[in-house]
Amino acid sequence: DGGITQSPKYLFRKEGQNVTLSCEQNLNHDAMYWYRQDPGQGLRLIYYSQIVNDFQKGDIAEGYSVSREKKESFPLTVTSAQKNPTAFYLCASPASSGNTIYFGEGSWLTVV
Amino acid sequence: GQNIDQPTEMTATEGAIVQINCTYQTSGFNGLFWYQQHAGEAPTFLSYNVLDGLEEKGRFSSFLSRSKGYSYLLLKELQMKDSASYLCAVNGGYNKLIFGAGTRLAVHP
User: Per-residue confidence at B1, pLDDT binned at 50, 70, 90?
Assistant: First the structure.
């Protein structure tokens, strides 16, 4: 079955440490997105990529970085510059037709 | 600018009907989505509207008026398991997805 796989499901970060969240899709979609969700809040866009080797900043890109070297993969790095990274992170990809958005199962990041 | 507004919280009684409204102002429009999200889980798809009118799918219906920048999600015969957050999202063109903050619905016996 086609879908989006995020890993890890749970991740703990120490102060000053960079961590990378993985997002892989086998849907052959061009566009991929990363969202952050804080408890009781909506989804806020971090970065998005419409095509391989290209990506754009979203509304809250500071302290994050991404790459899009392969169509299937869109990893998100949470850098030490992100001062409050504890949140639920969701990777998403819309179908080319635009009528469906696929989501990964999400990754919980906690600072310890 | 781009903006999507929906109520923060709603409460309803089991077996009743509830309507969750969403208004949007976006520079482009290529469809509106409604998603259900339980705490700590990924959103699940409920509906997609790209043309004006009502789309019905079982206990859930969604309405769109593009001229008014307005949509609503109608939930009938409410069940306890419908307690969740409901997210309104707009495809602003070129698959640029914009989400509202979500409406937390609490269903009481």
Answer: low
